[in-house]
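To whoever picks this up:

The nightly regression suite flagged CUB domain-containing protein as changed. Nothing in the input moved, so I suspect the structure step. Input below, exactly as stored in the fixture:
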Amino acid sequence: VCNEDQFTVDGEIKFTYLCGSAPTDWHFYLDVLGKANPTVFNFMTTSASFNRRFKIKVTMVPCDQKIPCGCGQYFRGPSGTIQSWNYPDYYPALVNYGICFRKEKGTCTTTLTRSGPSFVGCPDLYRQPVGQFNAATPVGSINIINLYCQLPCFAPPFATACTLPSPVSTINNGPLIIHHQTNIDPVPNHTNQVSGFYQTFSHNSC
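Regenerated output under the current build:
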């Protein structure tokens, strides 16, 4: 919950605050159209002593290249990598954004492959809308929704459901949007020395 440091952006609703470390080449789109100028970045810290630093590249996106509403991240090209903020350590509370992928010409489906340990604890969400019954899991309801979140690893019958299925492929032809939403949760979102998600994606030819 970012008790020591907080990075906030006035008017942004897809995250309340961020703290920790961003993965390499991590990006985020801010919805600023129609909001009062200027766009303000706020860095709030406590008196605790840390080696704090930040480096941010700001790019203004023309209106004719508008990113779909609700997309915090938007990926172009045939393949790439997606990671949660602060991976593999604690991901922040109170984020609610889409990880969106442009539908590339000549491609119809997308394959997601786990590149590192991944854990998103319920009630937080990491929804991969890849299609009903696309990946086999031991719990029928999880199989239908393709893992909105990982259930407690220590509680049978969920012990075998704590690993994100990999690889999984979409079975529809539409653009892929992964939804990531987190809460302030009394249960730490961390297990087996990792939290969050780390995957590669590749779009498949029709």
